[in-house]
Amino acid sequence: MGETTRAGGDASQVQSVDRALLVLDLLARRGELGVTELAAELAVHKSTAFRLVTALERRDLVHQIGDRGKYRLGLGILRLAAATTGRLEVSREGRDVCERLAHELGETVNIAIMDDESAVNVLQEYGNASVMTRNWIGRRTPLHATSSGKVLLAHAEEPVRKSVLAAGLERLTDNTRTDADQFLRELAEVAERGWASTNEELEVGLTAVAAPIRDGAGRVIAAVSASGPSFRLTPDSFGHVAGKLIEGGAEISARLGFYRR
């Protein structure tokens, strides 16, 4: 009896989800509809249609037009769309920002995303002071030893952080963070101050600074970084570079639909 009841409840929930999605599809095609019209389209009672649009309205997925009783798609749809397309668009929307940053900072500027618990660079621009023309695009780098990786991990969901720590923090240089507790404290600092840095933690002689890029829903989906030789990009300059990257990351985020309220 219990199994039958649960099965019936699951079927009812699936039907409600299906109807809610149909409401969104109808509004996308028709522009605006009232509860009576939606009920007719769904072949349900008006009270059922009203409950559906009320639930969607709470999530900002539909919006009631004044006192006319009509509904149209809400701004929440834009956030969902931005979250879906954000990773695909981040390279395109970030290119000219990265070009400008590379020119202003004189260092190599990259955009990286997280993929399978690694940081992967998807865009790269060289600065006029760059002494290396190394191509980082497509290369997987460890999250714990890169500035972009630290930004991505600082804003990742808890299971992702736990998985990375469980796999162990490989020592790549004498400066690589390998103590889990110390690393977690650093991630908390990264999340609070809004940027991360590495000082010869991936490779000897290489330093970097990174800041977050957010999608339309405010989720951190990428990081923009500047990297250079440690004799030029020194810890004393990290704060200045971070300020430039935070501004650039905010500009790219705005292009992806994120607006801080």
From TrEMBL:
It comes from the Bacteria. This is IclR family transcriptional regulator. InterPro entries: GAF-like_dom_sf (IPR029016), HTH_MetabolicPath_Reg (IPR050707), Tscrpt_reg_IclR_C (IPR014757), Tscrpt_reg_IclR_N (IPR005471), WH-like_DNA-bd_sf (IPR036388), WH_DNA-bd_sf (IPR036390). Residues 14-75 form the HTH iclR-type domain. Pfam families: HTH_IclR (PF09339), IclR_C (PF01614). Keywords: DNA-binding, Transcription, Transcription regulation. Residues 76-258 form the IclR-ED domain. Signal peptide: none annotated. The keyword DNA-binding applies. PANTHER family: HELIX-TURN-HELIX TRANSCRIPTIONAL REGULATOR, ICLR FAMILY (PTHR30136), HTH-TYPE TRANSCRIPTIONAL REPRESSOR ALLR (PTHR30136:SF24).
